[in-house]
Amino acid sequence: MSTSAGPLQTVVAMRDSKAGETPPVPPAAAAAARPTAAMRSPFVPLLLGLTALLAVLAHQAWQLDTERRQLLAARDAGAPQLAAATQVRRTLDLLAADTQRLADAGNAPARALVDELRRRGITIQAAAGTPGTTTAPPAAATEATASRR
């Protein structure tokens, strides 16, 4: 082995002289690393956003329509019970009005019944109707509910 430091100095000198330089970059990688100056079109993001909004609105409309149909079905299913309850209430109102008339005429048991109902907080309207008559619901109201279906 030789003791001269000639070749080592050359390598070290070359390494030191290239320390400040950047390594060469291939042209394709250099083009990809450079920021692009061209603006991208906002068409695609706006299209995606509007499509998502349209999908959400369509889903809500479908759900609201489904709920509306369910509510109409529930209302129609409860109509017979409502009609029966109305008829019972009308009958009880007529019975109470007749009892009030008897109490006003001096009937002692009818007066006791009316007084007991008053004590419990139930008031009787004497003008509920004439004895023995029932009133039917107006035909216009029945036709109006039938036309909504």
Which helices and strands occur, and which strands form pairs?
Layout: H1 6-17, H2 27-33, H3 43-105, H4 108-119, H5 139-147
Helix pairs in contact: 3-4
Task: Note down, in words, how this protein is organized.
The chain is 69% helix and 0% strand. The protein starts with 5 loop residues before the first helix and ends with a helix. The chain contains five helices and no strands. Helix 3 packs antiparallel against helix 4. It has a domain of 42 residues. It is rod-shaped and about 135 Å long. About 10% of the residues have low confidence. It has 149 residues and is mainly α.
List keywords for this structure.
149 residues; mainly alpha; 69% helix; 0% strand; rod-shaped
DSSP, total strands: 0
Question: Biggest sheet: strands, sense, closure?
Answer: none
Strand content: under 5%
Structural shape? rod-shaped
* Distance linking N and C termini: 110 Å
The gist of it:
The chain is mostly helical and 149 residues long.
